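Field notebook, page 392. I keep forgetting to write these up properly, so this time I am using the form the group agreed on. The chain and the ligand, adenosine monophosphate, are recorded exactly as supplied. Prediction of the bound pose follows.
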Amino acid sequence: MAWKTMDDVALAGKTVLTRVDINVPMEGDKVTDTTRIDKIKPTVEDIIARGGKVVLLAHFGRPKGKIVPEMSLRHVQPALEASLGRKVVFVERPDRAMIDALPSDAVVLVENTRFTDMEEANDPRMAQFLASMGDMFCNDAFSAAHRAHASTEGIAHLLPSFAGRLMEEELRALEAALGTPQRPVVAVVGGAKVSTKLELLGNLVTKVDHLVIGGGMANTFLVAQGVEVGKSLAERDMGPMALDILAKAKAAGCTIHLPVDIVVAREFKAGAASEVLPVAACPADAMILDAGPATVTELTRVFEACKTLIWNGPLGAFEITPFDAATTAAAQVAAHLTREGKLISVAGGGDTVSALHQAGAAGDFTFISTAGGAFLEWMEGKILPGVAALGG
Ligand code: AMP
């Protein structure tokens, strides 16, 4: 896929409408995690360095088309100023004459784009209004690129458009992991349910050489193959879908790896008494809450044989000890191989990112996506409208 970057356009004297994701968590009027704000800095600085004026467009929370004072981007302005080390001019409604009158290194922050229902409806009137405020459009919000909204997609068709630095980094990393990867490629997909990740699995078996299935969704595959899983979380009605995925994988030459041993407990709570058993030996009154050490050994062997890893979803109920063990161990193996230059590792999704942080492995991964839904849709093989609109 082709998209323009900042290196393909001339920005001197131009006002650049820049869509960012600064949807940061807050407690009261304090931003509790500035990661997303910090990540837009390279783009903002680069536009200014090239003589462009930055007008930031962003959503904040889910106000559903209404003006909700607690979801005003006004609350984010101080943290944004601190991170950028620049003054930020906040405007409820942008005005071209006012923007033009500002000095060329000014940064403007426009109020929450979702305060009108025209945003999510991708109403051309809103796209047109926003486009009239500037000369070019920069999309730096990969995490919002799976939605065709006025400020992500509509506007991109009205102005010369390009990807910001963070968007560029995301697209390159994802392209390197799934588009034209170094092979063999292993994908790890875990989490609670098969039903939410069917499309993902269906796409991956046609793209990767090894697919590791873990977490609650592995139980569904075990049940489909006639293995008893006691009281484990499993979607018994998804059996035919699971078998279909296995058949597709076989036809595509993708090797599926399911747990070979399991960690079971009678209670779903931290420190619950647990035991390691062979995969087919789950007692009728127990639950499978993690993969066992023999599974980790097998995954280590697979990771060592591969050049690229893409990861979404934990291998067990990682939020409670000791059921984080397989996820943590596998994450550390991936981190180690990445550090040694033997593996390109890309991960994304909220749970996955916290599991990797918990394992102390996140820092060593080649790339950790800040996007949840957009990362998943990319793994599903979908075209993201916000990215496609930058193609021209
Ligand atoms: P997802 O949002 O689909 O990626 O699922 C993540 C959730 O799956 C986490 O909250 C995990 O605790 C949960 N999970 C993973 N493995 C299991 C399991 N064997 N039994 C119950 N829950 C699990």
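OBSERVATIONS:
- The CA atoms of residues 174 and 253 lie 22 Å apart.
- DSSP finds 15 helices and 17 strands in the chain.
FOLLOW-UP: compare against the apo run.
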